[in-house]
């Protein structure tokens, strides 16, 4: 049982943050969104995983573009 908790903590701390970002935007608990992705992945043979990775890529690019567009006066 402890092994499962360690795996859960690892994924929660090192995941892309897509579920938590969607949860904050929509006002829904991130655990509910994670369960939706898991159940939908099983029912549709993995297609939500592609959506999840696409959202993670978009979030990463937005973060990168925000950093690169900063002014020279921002420290």
Polypeptide structure, described:
- This protein has 75 residues and is mainly alpha-helical.
- The chain has one domain (2-68).
- It is 77% helix and 0% strand.
- It is built from four helices and no strands.
- α3 (30-43) packs across α4.
- The longest helix is centred in the last third of the chain and has 22 residues, at 47-68.
- The chain starts with a helix and ends in a 7-residue tail after the last helix.
- The model has no long low-confidence stretch (mean pLDDT 78).
Structural class: mainly alpha
Number of domains: 1
Order of helices and strands: HHHH
Termini Cα gap:
46 Å
Helicity, as a percent range:
over 70%
> How many helical stretches?
4
Mind telling me the C-alpha Rg? Answer: 16 Å
Please summarize the sheet with the most strands: none
Mean pLDDT: 78
- Strand portion: under 5%
Number of strands: 0
Q: Shape, please?
A: globular
Poorly predicted regions: none
């Amino acid at each position: 049982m402890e092994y499962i908790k360690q795996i859960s903590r690892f994924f929660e701390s090192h995941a892309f943050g897509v579920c938590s970002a969607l949860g904050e935007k929509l006002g829904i608990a991130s655990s509910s969104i994670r369960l939706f992705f898991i159940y939908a992945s099983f029912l549709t043979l993995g297609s939500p995983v592609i959506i999840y990775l696409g959202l993670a890529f978009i979030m990463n690019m937005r973060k990168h573009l925000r950093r690169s567009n900063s002014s020279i006066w921002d420290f």
